[in-house]
Design goal:
The chain has 293 residues and is α/β, with parallel strands linked by helices. The chain is 41% helix and 18% strand. The protein has a seven-stranded mixed beta sheet, with helices on both faces. The protein is elongated and about 65 Å long.
């Protein structure tokens, strides 16, 4: 297994993490990965890891913390190995059929909660694992929430997440780029984190993202990175209630262009909002003037 026979100490396992992952991750990332694995598979917190650093692990526990290392070394993302990721306080199951939720998407949900006081009908387009739809259902328990995706496999993951969390969301198969695509009328909130990476940028992504996460969830149509913003914006312009809001996550270099595309569709007020790192990332739009938060 790469650990010397008879040496099952925690310190030896940790040393293997640093040695075997050094070419793929920096020291801080490796430390966070090891802590996550020990917490997820053994229930240990960082203090326990330090206090028990020179204890020997039973063979079964050794396997629980060492087998993820072998998969990490082969390029698998940690979230797929563990099968879950925390998103806005929810444990969301993830598989290679869905995009791994990012911190920026949690920021999007937080912004919505700060700017939307109430909602009766919420639609999440391109729901993937269902993380946005489920977080919004938790925050707006009285709302009817619909999650849409073109992938049947993604919808199966989202449905299972909803059942596991006890949150009732309707799941529908829909292709936002289909000319016949429509959204439910009277929606108070429509939200989407659509594929927005231009295909020509594929080479700039880390291999574990490019090769492991679903291509269809990452990349915009070749030559038209704004396609989803126009298609969803067009459908939303007909579906939103009078005071309804449309929210997007966007490519930081294309957020202003995406916002301009929404203005061209007749949205009367469109705001581009930076993420915590200062990059243009989120778009808030409405057909009628927005109330300032």
């Amino acid at each position: 297994m790469g650990i010397r026979t008879g040496d099952n100490k925690v310190d030896s396992v940790l040393r293997q993490y640093y040695e075997q992952l050094a070419s793929e991750y920096d020291v801080g990332e490796i430390k966070a990965i090891a802590r996550t694995v020990f917490h997820h598979n053994l229930g240990w917190d960082p203090a326990q890891m330090e206090l028990r650093r020179f204890e020997s692990l039973h063979e079964s526990d050794l396997l629980k913390v060492y087998m993820p290392l072998k998969r990490l070394r082969c390029g698998e993302p940690l979230q797929y190995i563990l099968g879950k990721v925390e998103f806005h306080g929810l444990q969301i199951a993830v598989t290679p059929d869905v995009l791994i939720p990012r911190p920026e998407t949690e920021e999007l949900v937080e912004l919505i909660f700060r700017n939307v006081r109430a909602a009766k009908l919420i639609v999440d387009v391109g729901t993937g694992s269902g993380c946005i739809a489920l977080a919004l259902k938790q925050g707006f328990p009285q709302a009817r929430v619909i999650g849409m995706d073109v992938s049947d496999k993604a919808l199966a993951v989202a449905r299972a997440n909803g059942e596991a969390l006890g949150l009732e969301v309707e799941w529908r198969r829909a292709d936002a780029l289909d000319p016949a695509f429509e959204l439910p009328r009277g929606a108070d909130l429509i939200v989407s984190n659509p594929p927005y990476i231009p295909e020509q940028e594929a080479g700039t992504l880390h291999a574990r993202v490019r090769a492991r996460e679903p291509y269809i969830a990452l990349f915009a149509p070749d030559g038209d990175p704004l396609a989803f913003y126009r298609a969803i914006g067009t459908a939303a312009s007909h579906a939103l209630a009078g005071d309804g809001q449309l929210w997007f996550e966007a490519h930081y270099r294309l957020a202003q262009e995406s916002a301009d595309a929404l203005r061209a569709l007749g949205f009367s007020e469109v705001q581009v909002i930076p993420d915590i790192g200062g990059n243009d990332r989120f778009i808030r739009a409405a057909r009628n003037p927005l109330q300032r938060s």
